[in-house]
Amino acid sequence: MKRRFALIQAIFSLVALAAVIWWASKQDPPELPSDAGSYAWLGAAILLYAVATLLRGERWHRILAVTGVRTGRGDCYALTTVGYMGNNVLPARAGEALKVVLLSGRCDASKRTVLGSVVAERILDLLALAVIFVVVVYGALSSSALPTDRPLVMAAAGVLLLVAAAIALWFLRGHHVFDRARDWLRPLADAPRALVGREGAGLLAGTFVIWAFEAAVYLAVARSVDLDFSMTGALYLVALTNFVAALPAAPGSIGTFDAAVAFGARRLGASGSMAVTYMLLLRFVLYIPITLVGLVILVSRYGGWSRLRSAMRLESSGVGEVAETTTPRPRAATESSI
Predict the structure, then answer these.
(1) pLDDT along the chain (338 residues), means of 10
(2) Helix 111-139 × helix 231-245 angle, to 10°
(3) What is the SS3 assignment for 6?
(4) Which of 273, 282, 225 is closest to 37 using CA atoms?
(5) Is there a contact between 277 and 32 (Cβ–Cβ < 8 Å)?
(6) If DSSP codes are grouped into helix, strand and coil, which group holds residue 338?
(7) C-alpha distance from residue 293 to each of 105, 243, 306 (Å)
(8) What are the residue ranges spanned by the domains of the chain?
(9) Which region, left, alpha or beta, applies to residue 197 given φ > 0 means left and ψ of -120 to 50 means alpha?
(10) Of 238, 248, 252, which is closest to residue 87 (Cα–Cα)?
(11) For the chain, which has fewer Cβ within 10 Å, the N-terminal or C-terminal residue?
């Protein structure tokens, strides 16, 4: 099953990447920025992304605190970068497993409890992105940014998807899948359950702030290549690219992310050559610096490649190994914060 999923990821990435390369070959050659003003905008984009990453670390720390997990704020900040590094270089988003393995060894929580906090992060991101996409696309942007000019067709497709989901849920319930899954998932449920109430509302508000910073990154990179679109356009592009990046793909969302950026930039009025330039620079800003920082932190603070191999064994063995540690671990005596 793991091999099949890896094959599906590779196929998605190869098809998307081939389409992007074919399309880019039909455009004028990209013109990379060469003046001081453009470099300043790129530097600002990197700084804004650093702030967004720190905010993600703070949000993770808060989710853990709400669920009763005591851990250092510095570990949450550092492991957020390590997780991004893992997602960018390892298959099947193994960066999430890497975060679970490294943090569970340094706090008083089991692996499944820590995994529950990661699930809560993804739920918050999904909710925020869905709201942003609906509000921005259907409330603020012109019809040129819409994937189709026939909203009734899209609504009908949505209804069909809901019907298919309902049939699938009925089938799974009839085979008692939910009953078997409930016992295994119970230790994961504490963090998502904490999203309900005042704390959850505050975390969701913070998530909107995080995505606003990420949209500012997209906007700053656009300014570096003289691509003129508004913050509303940047929010649309952020939501679009992150939804597409959730599709099965090779590490770093190779191909899928690039296709979404190129499509979105063109919808926002960029020429073909400018869209290619924007796509290349945005990939550099979002993937290269944080991967390097996460790698340095992994090697210097968390045991380097030996712990990376542990996380890979966890990811390759599936959910069973995550489930094996259900009793709290003592905090490591050597724990420090950055």
Answers:
(1) 67 84 88 88 96 96 88 92 90 81 82 85 90 78 50 56 61 52 50 71 93 96 90 91 81 87 89 92 95 92 69 52 39 36
(2) 130
(3) helix
(4) 225
(5) yes
(6) coil
(7) 21, 25, 18
(8) 2-20+38-147+184-323
(9) left
(10) 252
(11) N
